[in-house]
Amino acid sequence: MYEGEIAIGPVHSTMLEPHRLRLFIEDEIVKDAELTIGVNHRGVERLMEGLPVEKACILCEKICGICSHIHLWSAARLVEIGCNIEIPERANHIRIIVEELERLHSHTLLFGHAFEILGHETMSMRCFMLREPIMQVFFEISGSRVHYSCPIIGGIRPRCNISETQIPHILDKISKYEEGLNKFLERMLNDPMIISRVKDVGVMDRKTAAKFHAVGPTARGSNVKSDMRKWGWVPEYDPYDFDEILFDSGDVFARLAVRFYECLESVKIIRQALDALKDTSDKRIYNPNYELHEFKPINCYTEAQRGEQYYSYGLDDEGLVRQAKIRTPTATNLGAMEDIVKGYHVSDAELIIASCDPCFTCTDRLMVLKEPFKK
C-alpha cells in the first residue's frame, strides 16, 4: 500500500485564486487534508480603521470582484441601521435587483468552473455563454461589469437608476437566461458522466454542516435552513415571494442543484422587483436628509451568494469607522470541505473543495491564517 502526500497549489489550473491543499493519501484515497490560505492577505479591516465611512464603503466593494455589490450594500446598510437613515422604496428595489443579478452571475460562474474541474470543457464554455447576458445587464445599469458601485449611504447612485425603457430589455435578458438554464439543467441531469462524478461524492450530513457552521447553498445542500433573507435579517426582502431551496443528500450534486434552483428563484425576485419599480409612485432613489452620528459597533447580516455575510463596525463622533469586523461565508465553508474530502478519491478532492464555491481572496482580507483550519 502506497502512503504519501500530494500538494496542490498555491496555483491550480481550475481555481482562480491561490490556495495550498495538502492531501495525505493511502493508494489513491484521501485519508486527511490540510487547506491553507493567506496568499492574498490585504488587511482590509485594518485599512478601514479611522476612514470616513463613505471611503470605507468603497473600500469594502473591492473585497471581492464576484460579490462586490453585497459587500458595498452591507457596508452602507450597516451605517443606515446605526444612524436610522430612511431609504427610498425605489432604491431598495434596485439594490435587490442588482443583488439577485449578482447571484445569477456568481452561481453560473461556479457551474463553469465545476465543469472545468470535471474536464467537461464544452459544458464549462456553455456556462460562460449563459452568464454573458447577465454581465451585459450589469453594464447597461451601472456602466461596469465588475464593480457596479450602486448603493451609497441613503440610497443608490443616480447612474444606477433603472428607467422605464430599460425594464423590458432586462426582462427579455433574464427570460432568455431562465430558458437557457432550464435546458442546461436538463442536459446535466441526463449526462451519466457528469452524474457519476457529482452524485454521492463529498457527502456532508446535517450534523457535520452544523459542526462547522456551513452556510448558504453549502448548508442548504445538507437540508440546513440558512437563508438570511428568510430569517428576517434582511427585511428588504419581506415583500417578495420566493422559496428557500433545500436538498438532503449533502453531496456535490446537491450543492450544485441548490444553486441551479436558486437561480430560478432569483429570476422570480427580479421580475417582482421590476414590477414594483413600475408601480411605485415615489421616484426618489436617494435620501440626502440624513446626519451621521456616533454609534457603537452593531451587527449587520446579509445573504451573499455563498451564504451568511457578517459586517460590524461603529462610528466615532467624527464619522470615522471604528472596530471593523467582516466575516464572509467561505471562512466556515472551507473548514467543512476540508473535513468531508476525507475518504474520497484524490481526483474528487478539488471538485469537493470547489463545490462550496470558495472565494479565497474574500476570506484572506482579514488576517493571515498561520495554521490550517482546526477541527
TrEMBL record:
List, for all copies, the residue spans of the domain called NADH-quinone oxidoreductase subunit D.
118-365
Instruction: Give the binding site residues for Ni(2+).
Output: C64, C67, C359
Does the keyword Kinase belong to this entry?
Answer: no
SUPFAM superfamilies xref list: HydB/Nqo4-like (SSF56762)
Cofactor(s) needed for function: Fe cation; Ni(2+)
Q: Which PANTHER family match?
A: FORMATE HYDROGENLYASE SUBUNIT 5-RELATED, HYDROGENASE-4 COMPONENT G
Record-given protein name: Energy conserving hydrogenase B large subunit
Q: Which organism is it from?
A: Methanococcus maripaludis (strain DSM 14266 / JCM 13030 / NBRC 101832 / S2 / LL)
Which gene codes for it?
A: ehbN
